[in-house]
């Protein structure tokens, strides 16, 4: 099975969902489409890792609500127990940072400001999500068995990561400012020597 199949089983281990709901959840981790999900759901059903129930809807087509089976849980347990591959990262912002030394001050400032703004927006979004999640359980998760505990752990990690990224942006700005001052001193000294 591919990682997307395990992703489907992971989400279905927390609650029954439609294919559309699964796509929305998965898109929080990596981009996918209906055309990728539905054949995998059919394959998981064929292997008896999931089952579905048809739910009728007024003025809409009926929908399938998928649920993980005991066999599917066993397969998921084995996957969770196996070694995890290195994460695949595609980060355009980091690529821009890699070549930052070749650009002028206004370009660098614009890039740093864009990064800070992006991280600040993420911090607001993650904090709001965490507050919403914890208010539903009176700010308390009793155990790993608590509903939503995985979401709680991921939101806490996301908030830590984004706070560190904001701090990193400020550090870059400090280095850039110091270099600007040093460059200005060097330029003034050169002009002094030339006169």
TrEMBL record:
Q: Which Gene3D superfamilies match?
A: 6.10.140.190, Winged helix-like DNA-binding domain superfamily/Winged helix DNA-binding domain
> InterPro entries attached here?
Tscrpt_reg_PadR_C, Tscrpt_reg_PadR_N, WH-like_DNA-bd_sf, WH_DNA-bd_sf
Domain Transcription regulator PadR C-terminal: residue ranges: 90-175
Give residue ranges for domain Transcription regulator PadR N-terminal: 8-77
Q: What is this protein called?
A: PadR family transcriptional regulator
- Annotated source species: Ruminiclostridium papyrosolvens C7
């Amino acid at each position: 099975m591919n990682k997307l199949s395990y992703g489907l089983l992971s989400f279905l281990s927390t609650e029954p969902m439609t294919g559309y709901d699964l796509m929305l959840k998965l898109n929080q981790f990596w981009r996918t489409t209906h055309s990728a999900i539905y054949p995998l759901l059919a394959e998981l059903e064929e292997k008896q890792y999931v089952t579905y129930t048809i739910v009728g809807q007024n003025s809409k087509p009926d929908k399938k609500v998928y649920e993980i089976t005991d066999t599917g849980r066993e397969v998921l347990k084995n996957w969770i127990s196996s070694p995890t591959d290195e994460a695949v990262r595609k980060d355009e912002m980091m690529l821009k940072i890699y070549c930052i030394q070749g650009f002028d001050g206004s370009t660098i400032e614009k890039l740093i400001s864009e990064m800070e703004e992006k991280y600040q927006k993420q911090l607001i979004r993650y904090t709001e999500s965490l507050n919403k999640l914890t208010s539903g359980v009176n700010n308390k998760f009793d155990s790993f068995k608590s509903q939503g505990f995985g979401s709680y752990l991921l939101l806490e990690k996301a908030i830590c990561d984004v706070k560190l990224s904001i701090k990193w942006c400020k550090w870059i700005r400090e280095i850039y400012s110091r270099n600007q001052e040093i460059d200005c001193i060097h330029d003034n000294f050169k002009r002094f020597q030339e006169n």
